[in-house]
UniProtKB/TrEMBL annotation:
Keywords: Methyltransferase, Transferase. The lineage of its organism: Eukaryota, Fungi, Fungi incertae sedis, Zoopagomycota, Kickxellomycotina. It comes from Coemansia nantahalensis. The keyword Transferase applies. The keyword Transferase applies. This is Delta(24)-sterol C-methyltransferase. Its EC number is 2.1.1.41. It comes from the Eukaryota.
Amino acid sequence: SIRRHEHRLFDAARIQPGMKVLDVGCGVGGPARECVRYTGAHVTGLNNNDYQIQRAGIYADKYQQRDHSAFVKGDFMNMPFEDNSFDAVYAIEATCHAPVLKDVYSQMFRVVKPGGYFAIYEWCLTDKYDDSNEEHRRLALAIEHGDGIAKLFSTRVALQAARDAGFEGVTAQDLAHDTAVGNETPWYKDLDVGFVSFGGLQAFARSRVGRVFTSNAVKILEKVGIAPAGTVKVQDFLVDAADGLVDGGKLEIFTPMYLIVGRKPLN
């Protein structure tokens, strides 16, 4: 399902064999590796995290993709590339960390060649989000805090930002609620495992009982000095983030897969 999700984005960006493509906020390079396999393009990943860039390079060697990929450390608000450097540009759940969406989209517009496509999966608040609703605000804050996001923007803001950046023919679709693409299973299902689960270690760890067990274990490890100071706080806000994602998904006030596609004008 992850590959299908990525392939839809690569198709939307019109990526073809031999193209030079930019992955904005590439992490450790998972989507970039899949893009190379699926499209035959050369992918450059951009990330501001030294460790993730290092891991991406190690994986590129492991999967024999070094000749078809490169990973660059840099700020996606000020990309270290010349104008019109890439045939296509995409981002997967990364640009939500930008303080201003228009600014990061404008950087993507700058580095893609005229006629090239831009495609992203954006984390957004939907039209069902009500800022006057205290519960809605609590869930949005939990997602922002736990996932290191300065501010979640609405789908309307994201769509307009793409247009303001200069892209033409901009289209958008919330794939979180589109059963036609084969996602009848809710995207948050694996985070919503209930009180207790015996479906494996990861499922147990996500359950209510598993969280209590993990929390107490982390407290002990931090107290005796095995885990660094602050680990308990990190574990607590990650749990809050998971709950925010699940409840935000159930209320349909949040989507992690708002697909935006646009094209840089030829002129």
